[in-house]
Design goal:
mainly alpha
């Protein structure tokens, strides 16, 4: 007898988000303190550096630059990610403190500054019969730009929440994010093949590193006693604000791309790449920028991540039934996702049964 699934096929519950929530629960019950907190913080710092080294070692910049022939689409996605999103985040300042506490608003604004996803944007674009090569390339450009733009935008716009553009903040950004990434890029000719052959094992390393970062951040929040600021009512208001943000970006990317003259396949790629935010890139960056306050800073991003997956899964399935013909023009082939994106941002995949089906979440890699 066939057993009915506990959840509908169009509702992708990201197993990795469940692991993240479990880590938050562990930090609430058994927060690291004293010597254990010092050790956990040092390990998390090393984990962040390792993540960005692996990302740099596996991201082929040369192949990504080959996609510049489709520059209008990529500039549109970058504009949505690093211009329109931040402007909407700044406009939401009026929600604090009546709707969002100042700490939750800082996290909401930080969510608007992180780069786009790669893997899930590709999956949804493929399901919807869009321009998949363009989605790959746009996500890669966004990730490359986010290495520099996200920390600088956060330091400039969040002010005291991140310590501003102080020499210490810039030094942390350079040492923990930029230097490991550039080192990975420099060593890619020698280590790239080795890492590619062991991507399944490295997937566990990526995921485990991010879980360690989350545990350390939320432990610091528990010890500092900041969680009394988050009530169920505030969480509900945060979810409502994020739902409005996602709806606005989905509408702007779709109808705006149409006004700019893009065809259907390109509009799909722009919508799914331009309306998403990367959990894998955002969590390590938040740990560097916010320090002891990182727990509240990453909470809006974690909630938005799951919301965008659920909404975009439904939208992609509907786009797949669209009777309009698929555009024939596509962007040139571009690089595969980086390790953090491919592991922590890959809750959905294209079903072998066809473009209109959503496959179950892929196992950890």
């Amino acid at each position: 007898m066939n057993r009915r699934p506990l959840l509908p096929s169009w509702l992708p519950v990201d197993g990795y988000v469940l692991a993240l929530l479990g880590t938050v629960g562990l930090a609430a019950l058994l927060p690291a303190s004293g010597t254990a907190a010092t050790v956990a913080e040092a390990a998390a710092t090393g984990a962040v550096a390792l993540l960005f080294f692996l990302y740099g070692a596996r991201l082929s910049t040369g192949e990504a630059l080959d996609g510049l022939r489709h520059w209008r689409l990529h500039l549109t996605v970058l504009g949505c990610t690093f211009l329109v999103f931040p402007l909407l985040g700044l406009a939401a300042r009026g929600l604090a403190p009546a709707v969002l506490t100042p700490q939750l608003y800082s996290g909401f604004l930080f969510l608007c500054l992180v780069p786009s996803t790669i893997q899930s944007s590709i999956a949804f674009t493929s399901i919807a019969r869009g321009n998949v090569p363009a989605a790959i390339c746009a996500g890669s450009f966004s990730s490359l730009a986010g290495i520099v733009l996200t920390p600088l935008l956060a330091a400039a716009l969040l002010g005291g929440s991140t310590g501003g553009l102080s020499a210490d903040a810039l030094l942390r950004i350079v040492l923990q994010l930029l230097v490991p990434f550039l080192l990975g890029q420099a060593l890619r000719p020698w280590v790239g093949g080795f890492l590619t052959r062991r991507k399944k094992v490295l997937g566990y390393v990526d995921r485990g590193s991010i879980l360690l970062v989350v545990y350390t951040a939320f432990s610091q929040g528990m010890v500092a006693g900041i969680w009394h600021l988050v009530t169920p009512g505030r969480l509900a208001l945060l979810l409502a604000a994020e739902a409005v943000l996602l709806a606005l970006m989905l509408a702007l990317t779709w109808y705006g791309a149409g006004k700019l003259g893009f065809g259907r396949a390109d509009r799909i790629a722009i919508q799914f790449a331009g309306s998403k935010k990367s959990l894998a890139a955002g969590l390590p960056m938040a740990s560097v920028l916010f320090g002891a306050h990182a727990s509240l800073a990453v909470l809006p991003l974690m909630l938005f991540h799951q919301m965008q997956l659920m909404v975009c899964a439904v939208l992609a399935k509907r786009r797949a039934r669209d009777p309009e013909p698929t555009d024939t023009a596509t962007a040139p082939a571009t690089p595969a996702p980086g390790p953090a994106e491919a592991s922590a941002e890959a809750p959905v995949s294209v079903s072998p049964a066809g473009p209109g089906r959503i496959a179950p979440p892929s196992p950890p890699r």
